[in-house]
Write a structure and sequence with these properties.
Bound molecules: 3-isopropylmalic acid, magnesium ion
Largest sheet: 10 strands, mixed
Strand order of the largest sheet: 2-1-3-12-11-4-5-10-8-9
Shape: globular
Mean pLDDT: 94
Number of strands: 12
Structural class: alpha/beta
Radius of gyration: 21 Å
CATH superfamily of the largest domain: Isopropylmalate Dehydrogenase
Order of helices and strands: EHEHHEHHEHEEEHEHEHEHEEHHHH
CATH architecture of the largest domain: 3-Layer(aba) Sandwich
CATH class of the largest domain: Alpha Beta
Number of helices: 14
Distance between the termini: 43 Å
Length: 371
C-alpha cells in the first residue's frame, strides 16, 4: 500500500513525540511492505514565529492532498496568558479542522492494569473502563459568531447547530456502538439549551435506524460526575463540541496518564491523528515526554487505512513496553526511559527484533540518567 501522510510537528513536545510515530510507521512499512511518504508542514506557535500565520495556506494544501495527517501538539504559554493576542496558535488547528471538514473527533479511553496505581480513581471504580467519545468538532460555540463591543465590556459566543451537522457525527457514533457493546449515551444540556434539545430530537430519530443500539441521555453535569463514580457504564458517548472538549480531558485521566491517549478526527476526506495531550512546553526538547499517545494515534491512522494487523501489532508493542515497565517519566518518575528509547523499543518490537525471552539487562543500559 502506498500512502501520503502530512506531518505537522506543531509546538512544544509535538516534534519529539511525533518523530517516534514516524519511526514506528517506517518500521511498519518495512515489515509489511508498504510505502509511506511523509511531507512536513507548519502550524501553531511555530508557524506564527516563522510566517506570522498559525496555519499557512501551504499547510492546508498539503493536508488536503494527503491520505492522512499526523499531528503533534499546539500551544505556547506566551499566548495563553495574553487575552489581547489577536493571532493565536489554536486558531491554526480550528481552521484546519474546518478546512478538512473534520466533523468527528474520536477519543477512546481504555485502562491498563500496569498503570492502575496512577489513576486518580480507585481500582474498583476504574478497572475495565473501555469507552469511546465521539465529539462533534466543527460546529457549536467554537465556530459561532463572536463579538466584543466597542468598549470591550460585553462579549458574545454564539452556539449554533444544524440537524445535518448533528446527524453526520451521530451516524458514525451509532455505527461504532453497533460494533462494540451496543450502547450510546448522548451527553447534552437539554434542560437548558435549545441546541441540546435539537441534538436529542435528531438522535431519537436516528435511533430508529439502529435498533440494536440502546440509547440513553445524560445531562453534561451529571455525566461529569458519572465519569468519576462509574466510568464502566459507558460504551460510546456522543456529544457536542464544547462538552466533548471538557469531558474528554476529564476522561483522559482515568487511565492514569494523559500522555497515553490517542485521537482521530475524521470527516469526508483526509483524517487527522493526534495525541490528546497538549504541547507541554516545560518538557519540550528534554526527551522525557511520553510518545505513546502519538504512537497509539498512529495505530488509529493505520486502522483508518484498514491496515488492521499493522495497527494491532503497534498496540501489542505498546502493551509490551508498559508490561515490562519501559515507561517515561510521567509514569515512573524514578526508573524511566527517554522518549526516543521508548520509540526505539516499539520499532524493534514491530520489526520483530524483540525475542520472546528478551534480555532486560540490555534494555536496562538504555535507562535514562536524567533525574
Ligand atoms: C483539543 C484542544 C483544542 C480544542 C484547543 C487546542 C483549541 O483542547 O483538541 O481538545 O479545544 O478543541
Ligand atoms: Mg481539549
Amino acid at each position: 500500500m502506498k500512502k501520503n501522510i502530512a506531518v505537522i510537528f506543531g509546538d512544544g513536545i509535538g516534534p519529539e513525540v511525533t518523530q517516534q510515530s514516524i519511526n514506528v510507521l517506517n518500521a511498519v512499512a518495512k515489515t509489511f511492505g508498504h510505502q509511506f511518504e511523509f511531507t512536513y508542514s507548519l502550524m501553531g506557535a511555530t508557524a506564527i514565529d516563522q510566517t506570522g500565520n498559525p496555519l499557512p495556506d501551504e499547510t492546508i494544501e498539503a493536508c488536503l492532498n494527503s491520505d492522512a495527517v499526523l499531528f503533534g501538539a499546539i500551544g505556547h504559554p506566551k499566548y495563553d496568558n495574553d487575552p489581547t493576542a489577536t493571532v493565536r496558535p489554536e486558531q491554526g488547528l480550528l481552521k484546519l479542522r474546518k478546512s478538512l471538514q473534520l466533523y468527528a473527533n474520536i477519543r477512546p479511553v481504555t485502562t491498563y492494569p500496569s498503570l492502575q496505581h496512577l489513576s486518580p480513581l480507585k481500582a474498583k471504580n476504574s478497572e475495565g473502563t473501555d469507552f469511546v467519545i465521539y465529539r462533534e468538532l466543527t460546529g457549536g460555540i467554537y465556530f459561532g459568531r463572536k463579538e466584543l463591543n466597542a468598549d470591550k465590556t460585553r462579549a458574545i459566543d454564539e452556539c449554533i447547530y444544524t440537524e445535518q451537522e448533528i446527524e453526520r457525527v451521530a451516524h458514525l457514533a451509532f455505527q461504532h456502538a453497533a460494533r462494540r457493546r451496543k450502547k450510546l449515551t448522548l451527553v447534552d444540556k437539554a434542560n437548558v439549551l435549545e441546541t441540546s434539545r435539537l441534538w436529542r430530537k435528531v438522535v431519537q430519530e436516528l435511533a430508529q435506524q439502529y435498533h440494536e443500539v440502546a440509547v440513553d441521555y445524560m445531562f453534561v453535569d451529571n455525566a461529569a460526575m458519572q465519569l468519576i463514580i462509574n466510568p464502566r457504564q459507558f460504551d460510546v458517548i456522543l456529544t457536542e463540541n464544547m462538552f466533548g472538549d471538557i469531558i474528554s480531558d476529564e476522561a483522559s485521566v482515568i487511565a492514569g496518564s494523559l500522555g497515553l491517549l490517542p485521537s482521530a478526527s475524521v470527516g469526508n476526506g483526509s483524517a487527522l491523528f493526534e495525541p490528546i495531550h497538549g504541547s507541554y512546553p516545560q518538557a519540550a526538547g528534554k526527551d522525557i515526554a511520553n510518545p505513546l499517545g502519538s504512537v497509539l494515534s498512529a495505530a488509529m491512522l493505520l486502522d483508518h487505512f484498514e491496515l488492521t494487523s499493522e495497527a494491532a501489532l503497534v498496540r501489542e508493542a505498546v502493551d509490551w513496553t508498559l508490561k515490562h515497565n519501559f515507561v517515561t517519566k510521567d509514569i515512573d518518575p524514578v526508573n524511566f526511559y527517554s522518549t526516543a528509547t521508548i520509540g526505539e523499543l516499539i520499532c524493534e518490537y514491530v520489526s520483530n527484533k524483540v525475542p520472546g525471552e528478551f534480555h532486560q539487562a540490555n534494555v536496562e543500559l538504555r535507562k535514562s540518567t536524567i533525574i
